[in-house]
Amino acid sequence: MKGKVVFILGCTPRSSTTATMKALSAHTQLHAPSMADLLLPKAPKIVRSGFEWIAPIVQPYFDSRWNPAIHATGFNKREAFDIAVMRKFQGEGVMGYTYYGLLNGKTTPTFTTQHLDFLQQIVKRAQSENPDQIPLLKYFGGIFHLDELKARFPDAKFIFLQRNPEKAFTSYVTLLGNALKNEKLPETYWAGVYQMVVSAYALAPHAQSYTDILSLKSEEVSADMEKHVRQMLDYIGLPFEGQQALQEALQQLKLKWQERSEKGMGYTYTDKIAKALFKAEDFQ
Prior knowledge:
alpha/beta, Rossmann fold
């Protein structure tokens, strides 16, 4: 087990990576580093632990309008609070590069050796603090730097999830639109987001060309999560049977998806933007 780590790579956001992460992290032999670990890789454990319990208490009183640059990107109040804490403790880490890019008008992920260093630091710390568990990280930006990730983590297992690009893009902008509550952003911003999605899907065949990467379709995973979690665990080398918490997590996800399917995500002005920008030929 020593030296092994599991990465969940989504081709883009809204590719079922979060649901997959929640399910797998319920396994007794897998450990998902917290948001504090991802945002504050340099902070001592007491700060990271404190962040986990104090954030839900303080967050409701935090007004995202405190920083217009944060509010304008569509982050909700909890996410804005996370960013504020990240800045306070000079954090960046794995999540930070995405936030940093959006806050500075860069929708195509930027990546440096420093981010790989952060990632490696988090993995090593997770292994030392939880020696009986395998670190599990969700990291959609990895699609842009898969070769570097594989070189840095030669013993890693990679699960790659790809959703229908139109569904993924529409879901992504609708999610941000709901967070914005119809507060409009320049169309150039959404065009940049769209180009990021196009770039990510252009790299998908490269990820799928690796025989040691488990590549799955998000729609199929969502339709039968238990079947595919069994497949993922078999790929990682872990058992499914006897994992009560995992089975309960799968049931909760199923109920949540049913509720979301019945309720829908709602309509925002960004739905029109998504339809105007999306061109099927960009993904052929």
